[in-house]
Amino acid sequence: WLSGKTILDVSNRDPKIDLYAVGDKINAPTLGNNYRNDIGGTSASAAAVSGAIAIIKEKNPALPVTELLKMLQDTSYRFKYSHATLGEQEGRRLKLCQDYRFNGRSYECGI
């Protein structure tokens, strides 16, 4: 992501991608109990997605993967992007929530 609205040039763009995660200027811990915000790429963004999944699974160990994906997609930020052959597409960017609530039809972020 660049400015939170654009997919980086090096990122994949495809309607088959279930969920995007921030991959540029990630605030990451370093040695000496410091942080830096110039980390980027799928290696850095994978930690955010894995961490979100781990927290959700800790609270709901029996939650099926399909329901977990629905939870993350329902609460994600939606954005538009351009695909080389398919034109304008809609993607979903991971949004981390403190709690997830099911309203009978879809999930939403709780307080």
Which secondary structure elements does this structure contain, and how are they paired or packed?
Blueprint: E1 26-30, E2 34-39, H1 42-59, H2 65-74, E3 77-83, E4 87-93, E5 99-102, E6 107-110
Antiparallel strand pairs: 1-2, 3-4, 5-6
Quick structural summary:
With 111 residues, the protein is α+β, with helices and mostly antiparallel strands. The protein has helices at 42-59, 65-74, and strands at residues 26-30, 34-39, 77-83, 87-93, 99-102, 107-110.
Describe this structure in words.
This protein is α+β, with helices and mostly antiparallel strands. It contains 2 helices and 6 strands. The strands form 3 sheets. It has a two-stranded antiparallel ribbon with strand order 1-2. Strand 1 (26-30) and strand 2 (34-39) form a beta hairpin. It is flat. 9% of the residues are buried. The model has no long low-confidence stretch (mean pLDDT 80).
What global shape is seen?
A: flat
N to C succession of SSEs:
EEHHEEEE
Count of β-strands: 6
| Helix amount | 25-40%
What structural category arises from helix and sheet content?
Answer: alpha+beta
Stretches with pLDDT under 50, minimum 5 residues: none
Number of helices: 2
Order of strands across the widest beta sheet? Answer: 1-2
Cα end-to-end separation: 26 Å
Q: Bin the strand percentage.
A: 25-35%
Write down the Rg. 15 Å
Mean pLDDT: 80
Sketch the major β-sheet. Answer: 2 strands, antiparallel
